Amino acid sequence: MSDGDSVVEAFASLADADWVDLTHTLEEDIPSVPTHARYGHTLYQSYEYGDPACHYRISMGEHSGTHMDAPLHFVPDGEAHYDIASVPLDRLVGRTATIEVTDLGPDDRLTVDHVTEWEAEHGDVEAGDRVLFRFGWDERWDTGKAGQAFYEDWPGLSREAAEYLTDRDVTMVGTDAFAIDAARAEGFPAHYELLGNETYILENLANLSALPPFSLLFTFPLKIAAGSGSPIRAVALVE
C-alpha cells in the first residue's frame, strides 16, 4: 500500500465520526481582556449600497475569542517554536483528553489530584497528548453586559497541576474559562510553567461537554509573524 493509500484509508476510517465545534463565534461585544483590543467588524462594501461585493474590515487582538497562546505571550526569550507562526503543524492535531472539573467554583484551583483521579478511571495522559479542562465556564459566554460573568472569578490550574502536565510532555493545555490561570492567581504561574516548556495554551473553548474522555482535536491558528497568539477554529472528531 502506498503512502497516499494509507492517508486515504485513515481518513475513510473517520467518515462515521462526528465533528464538534469547540469555537465561540467572533462577534462584536464578546468578552475581552480590558487591556486587549476588542473585536470589531466594520462594513466596507455592501450590496445594499450598490457595491459589486460584500466586504468587512476585521480588527481584534491576538487573544480574541477562542485562541491559542504561543510562548512569546509570557516568555521574553525563546528559541524554536517561539511565536505563533512557528508552531509545528504536527502539534496542531492529535489525541486529546477532556477532563471534567465542573465541581470547581469561582477562582478555585485545579490540583494534581483532579488529573490523577481522572487517569485512574479513564487511562493515563501520555506524552504528546493535549489536555482540555471543562469547568463549564463557557455557559457564561455572551455578548455585552450579559457576558461580564465570563471574566469574573473564573477557576484555573494550580502551579502544581501545570508542572504535572509539563512533566508528562503534553503538547497543549486548554480551558473553557477566560484564562488558564485562575482569576486571582498571582504571577500567572500556569502560564509561565506551560509556555516556558513549549506547551501551548488554548483558552475560551466551547462545547467541551460534547467530548468523551478521548477525542481527536484540530486547532489551527493564523500564521502571524512574531505573534504572541492567535484566534483559532478548534474542532474535535468524536466516534
TrEMBL record:
<dbReference type="InterPro" id="IPR037175">
    <property type="entry name" value="KFase_sf"/>
</dbReference>
<protein>
    <submittedName>
        <fullName>Cyclase family protein</fullName>
        <ecNumber>3.5.-.-</ecNumber>
    </submittedName>
</protein>
<dbReference type="InterPro" id="IPR007325">
    <property type="entry name" value="KFase/CYL"/>
</dbReference>
<keyword id="KW-0378">Hydrolase</keyword>
<dbReference type="GO" id="GO:0016787">
    <property type="term" value="F:hydrolase activity"/>
</dbReference>
<dbReference type="Pfam" id="PF04199">
    <property type="entry name" value="Cyclase"/>
</dbReference>
